[in-house]
Every structure is written in structure tokens, then in C-alpha cells.
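Next comes this protein:
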Amino acid sequence: MPGSLDDQLGFAPDYDSPIPYMQRTRDYYAAIGYTTPYRWAHHVDTPFQPLKKPLAQSRVTIVTTAAPYDPAKGDQGPGAAYNGGAKFYQVYDGDTSKPHDLRISHIGYDRKHTSATDSGTWFPLPQLLKAKASGRIGEVAPRFFGAPTNRSHRVTIDVDAPDILARCLADKVDVAVLVPNCPVCHQTSALVARHLEANGISTVVMGCAKDIVEHAAVPRFLFSDFPLGNSAGRPHDVESQALTLELALSLLERAFGARTTMQSPLRWSEDASWKLDYNNVAQMSPEELARRRAEFDKQKEIARGNRAA
């Protein structure tokens, strides 16, 4: 018996496409009772700063949405439930010459299909240091920067992005590699990238939420079709992490203009059905939606208290 027409023509299933995070998020929050749709940042024009010097002579930093581990803030370990108490609300920086324990329990990464056991998937400092050692880049900047995942566009645009820019300028940064994790993280990183680029710093966003980043319109975007939380490569796969950073660096060199997207050739798995799960209300029972609403309200109160503190 002949197979299906898709099999005969070699077609992939329709769901094996980049996850539509903006629509999934709108539908999800509506289903748990938040009926005002979130306004995702949308731009058409995009600033573009070509490299001012070869990468082998450039000073490169990282902008991350991961948070420093704080043992006083509850469970932040691998597989931890969403922890609003671990969120941060001001830009921070860290010394790139030292190791750092950064975690992502405070944001909505894909907890079903990845477990946050390897920070190399969201904080590529080890790979950046290797790039410096090999001569691929000139220097690693003395500091990396943490960008708060504000849902408020105005706070990101008027407060956080200018703060990160000022710190980059103080460190004489030439290039910034931005690494988001959750859906809102991708929007935050896109808005920060646009601000840096408009002020003379070349950028590349490494991410997994293609629709959000392209909707906001960034200069350069390296898309990895992986579950959220793995923008810098597969967990415990150093080769994939090295390749992902190299693709981002190559994109910095090769992009001819703004809004250039490169897709990583790496696949998460041969079975793409994992893409059907993240915040997909069609996969959730009414009881599950009610449970999630209660948990969301609880975490929102915790985060509100931390913000006020």
C-alpha cells in the first residue's frame, strides 16, 4: 500500500514549524481568565550597525535574562516550578573573569521538554571565553549584563535598555550577544538589541521564539528551533553550544542589513511533536487551566511583593 501523499512527497507535518508563541500566549492567558490581549512589541524599521572592526579585534559582551542564584529565594534548581520570587527588576552585571551560577526558574521556559540542568544552554560565557582563546574574537568584555524580563515595553525601552547601553559604553563594548529564554525575554532582548544597535553597538540575538523576535524587528537573529531555555545550544552537548555561538558570530560578519535571520541546522529531536505542548490550551483540561490560574495568581503576588521591597 502506498503511504500518504505527505510521505510520498517528503513533506513534514504542519506542526513541525516554529511555535507561534504570540498566539499561544494570547490564547493561554485568555483561557485562564485574562481577557485583555497582550500587545507584543512590533516594529518595521530596524537600526543596523555593521561591525566597526573585525571580530578578531572586537570586544564582545553577553546580555542575559537569567538570574543569579540566591539560596534565600526558594527552589531555583533544575526542573523547579515557576518561581516568581527569584525575579529581578533592575539591570545587573557580572565579572566575566569569574564563574557564575545563573538560573532560569523565574521565567517561563519549556519545563516539559527541558529541565534546566546545564547553564551552557542559556549563558554562553564558557563558549565566548573559548572564542577569545582561539582568536575568534578580540576580547570578552569585563562584564556581562542581566536584562529584567519586564512585560512593560516602556520600562524596557526607557529604563533598562539605556542602562545596559551606558554600561556597555563604559566597558567599550563593540558587540553584544543577547540570549533570551522565555517569550517575554525574547521581546526584552529584541528591544535592548534595537537600542544598542541605534547607538553604535552591533548585536545578535540568539533565541528560540522566532515570531516574537521578528515581530519586534531586530538587526540579526540566530534562530534555534529548540524548546525555550535552550537559546545557546542543546544541554550537555558542548559541540552544539560551540556551533550555536559560531553561527551567531558568523551572522554578525555576514548580515548585509537589518532583519537578517539565520536558522540553526540543529534539530531538537527527530520527533517534532514537542512543539504541540507549550502553553497549548488545546492540550489542557478545564481542571488544568484552573490550577494554572491559581498558581499564576500566587506567583504574581510573590513577584509584586519582591518588586515593592
About this structure: Helices lie at 5-9, 21-31, 125-134, 153-170, 183-198, 210-216, 238-254, 286-308. The chain has a mean pLDDT of 94. The radius of gyration is 19 Å. The longest helix spans residues 286-308.
